[in-house]
Amino acid sequence: MLEKVKGFSADQVIEEFEALTKDAERVQRETLYRILHDNGEAEYLQNLGLRGRTDPHSFKSCVPLVTHKELETYIHRIADGDAYPILTGKPITSISLSSGTTQGKPKFVPFNDELVHSTMQIYKTSFAFRNRAYPLRNGKALQFIYGSKQFKTKGGLTATTATTNVYRSEEFKRTMMDIHSLCCSPDEVIFSPDFHQSLYCHLLCGLIFSEEVQIVFSTFAHSIVHAFRTFENVWEELCFDIKEGVLSSRITIPTIRAAVSRLLRPNPQLADAIYNKCVGLSSWYGVIPALWPNAKYVYGIMTGSMEPYLNKLRHYAGSLPLMSADYGSSEGWIGANIDPELPPESASFTVLPNIGYFEFIPLKEKGDLLEQNSDLLSNQREQEPIGLTEVKVDEEYEIIITSFAGLYRYKLEDVVRVAGFHNSTPKLQFIRRKSLILTINIDKNTEKDLQLAVEEADKLLAAEKLEVLDYTSHVDMSTDPGHYVIFLELSGEAREDVLNSCCDCLDLAFVDAGYVGSRKVRAISPLELRVLKRGTFHKIMDHYLTLGAAMSQYKTPRCVGLSNGKVLQILNSNVLKSFFSAAYN
Ligand code: AMP
């Protein structure tokens, strides 16, 4: 029997959260004071002439808005071992590598213990609200989490992904214990150098502890979908391991073998129960509640670029609720999801006003917003950023963060919409990454526009009992004029006429006036659909993992440019068929 939860006071966490959010403006001022006071010695702030001032007005007039590019040399000096206080007063303890799937290579971001504390604050806050709605008892979590490769920088700092930095911290383990989310798998599995072996063992450990599992989790929902797609192929082997009490020979890393073998005993009864449940499922619908009968919900980031995986996730989760996790980045956390009952499509993130200083650049309408893309119109003036408590409901903003880890007025390049307020702090909905991904001349399409277009094509495929497993895009300028290429990996073989219709449908689904106008006057050539072999997106993921990306932070790149030559080559060498749209003929 599962015991009732002890040692965690959700009420106290909620009380503290209420106090913080009631006077968000004051908390923001105090937070800025703390950041500037603690880091006043840093060369970066000294050079900007702040001279010890810590008020919002002086801060905004002295410190410029920056992107990662402007801070790169500072961060590299830190990584190279320059001992001078460069971005922070206290030394930076490690370097985080952001997922880097947008640019093709990971970015270096400073990391310190302050980020661990704010991560835990976010985890505890959203847990407290989840626990009110879905109370947990003592138990475990089937967590698909993965440490990534790490290396030492020239200056001797550990460089790895932010999630790995967090998973390694003592505070993480303590918090997971407090919130009854301790991972079923031993550390050797989480920090294995081989992602495929980790995944197999996560599934196995999850099955061994199936009665105790209350949450199925991964940082980004894609990892859960990937895990259950893999489960469909390896379930019989897992049953065999449990029946015999012997770990499959596919696990070759001695430390993982030893750690997992310690948990494994011959258990034919459990193996038979799993086997019978699996054969009784129809197309794996509801596999999660079938195998983990005490699971209360499935948890992970399901918004933004994770939305395309929601259908599949719902399929595996069956009757279990899906709960979208919090909003943050390698650079710092932003907000917690305190409305766990809302479906992921409506999830918002309530900003914690003490974990950073936040500013927002208003982006009024889509037209304005796109004109702010500095790559396109570098001489357009941006609107002045406004403070956390000044934002307006229903408006869209680009978010700027100032962190305890050496980032000052840093453009995260995410677009958010204000869904409402909790006390005096806003609730943000993630809209999309800011950058345009598809543009040839006056056309402007973002990753959200691409997602909507693919959803339209997916509807045609659904009528044929097929689905889009994953997708990406490319602007092909080798034709004159250039054209959009959409790569789709499908769950099965589609008829030519269906694919032709999908191709036309994709072309018509880009409704941006610049695109439609350009297509009509043939200033953009017909859209091309390239259908990929099964497994192509796994190859792309493996490519990123070998570069040091962490599965825990992996996001499929939604546009692949020429600068990302290796991924483009993987895509192009796996094309089964291609089609050109006749939509504007
Ligand atoms: P990383 O580069 O791995 O640190 O990823 C951070 C980025 O992931 C953010 O800037 C967002 O674009 C995205 N992200 C993080 N949390 C969420 C969320 N809850 N919903 C949507 N996108 C998110």
Automatic annotation (TrEMBL):
Bilayer-spanning residue ranges: none
All copies of domain GH3 middle, residue ranges: 349-433
Name of the protein in question: Jasmonic acid-amido synthetase JAR1
Keywords of the record: Ligase
Residue ranges annotated for the GH3 C-terminal domain, each copy included: 448-560
Pfam families: GH3 (PF03321), GH3_C (PF23572), GH3_M (PF23571)
Species per Swiss-Prot/TrEMBL record: Dendrobium thyrsiflorum (Pinecone-like raceme dendrobium)
Family: Belongs to the IAA-amido conjugating enzyme family.
Source organism phylogeny: Eukaryota, Viridiplantae, Streptophyta, Embryophyta, Tracheophyta
InterPro entries in the record: GH3 (IPR004993), GH3_C (IPR055378), GH3_M (IPR055377)
One GO MF term attached to the UniProt entry: ligase activity
